[in-house]
Design a protein that fits this description.
Chain lengths: 148, 148
DNA sequence: ATTATTAAAGATAATTTTGTCCTTAATTTT
DNA sequence: AAAATTAAGGACAAAATTATCTTTAATAAT
């Protein structure tokens, strides 16, 4: 569904948010290992998530530094991560990739996809980063990288 | 959601099915123009859809030749197109891309995504190629490439 | 038979995505 | 102040995806 970049972005955000909720900052090293993603590639993604436009994750250099997410940011919908990675179109556009598909001039799948798209969008827009990160639905202690 | 290849594959299949339902064969040229995809790339995709494993579209070389879909094939679910392109995982796997995510060891989004995934899968598995191609939901005479 | 038309197949190229490496800057600890 | 630790940023490389081009094979019409 999403690109690797966006998958990593979501996983990283959730990982950091979990640690931040117990007031822990985490290093790129730890994040990368925790989410099962290449270290330097993870670094690049974290830059995108922390830049001026996105401001989803925060960071501090130097020893005892690392990444964290403010309480304010963690109250925003998880959707902003997808948006920051520029992949909100994945959820919002036509299944057949038609640029001119809409309610007025629908493609063959438009009607059946419309409701699903709405739910999909809701899944990202109606749940905050914090809610997702600390979801009770996910009972396992370590979320990612279990098979390492 | 899907790669360009799969989008083109779905569009091409629908386009051919529509023409086949009025007993018309169509050339690569016509298909490519009709769906708004590069000609030679479309040809490659049609090869994938017509090969021994897939057998979704049929073709005949030479003048008055072209592509068509048999009545039998058009009764199969549109899902087989996605499958032939090797992208059924897009619909069937974890949103976060975790290989070990399942009901027993769910990721943070698993529960909320589960129902959506089921609907998404149903959209492709419960509708035949013919149903999608000749859907009454789509009223516009030309499905694709309207802005050319 | 020859020519024209069409798909099949293979080679190559461009672009995008993914991944790695190295240097620099910031910050803390000693 | 010096050393150590961490993120930031830029350059580069590998792989995958998307796109193009050329030749060959099949088939029909002339």
């Amino acid at each position: 569904m999403f690109s690797k970049s966006t998958e990593y972005a979501l996983r990283a955000t959730i990982y950091i948010a979990r640690q931040s909720s117990i007031h822990k900052k985490v290093s790129i090293q730890e994040i990368a290992e925790g989410i099962g993603a290449p270290k330097h590639f993870t670094a690049k993604i974290l830059q995108q998530l922390s830049n001026k436009n996105a401001q989803i994750v925060s960071s501090i250099s130097g020893p005892s530094g690392g990444f964290y997410i403010t309480e304010e940011a963690s109250k925003k919908p998880i959707y902003i991560v997808v948006e920051a990675m520029g992949e909100n179109t994945v959820i919002e556009s036509c299944v057949l990739g038609l640029p001119n598909c809409n309610d007025a001039t629908p493609c063959s799948m438009h009607k059946s996809y419309k409701g699903i798209k709405k739910e999909l969008l809701g899944m990202f827009k109606n749940r905050t980063i914090n809610e997702v990160a600390n979801s009770k639905d996910c009972l396992t202690p370590v979320y990612f990288n279990r098979n390492k």
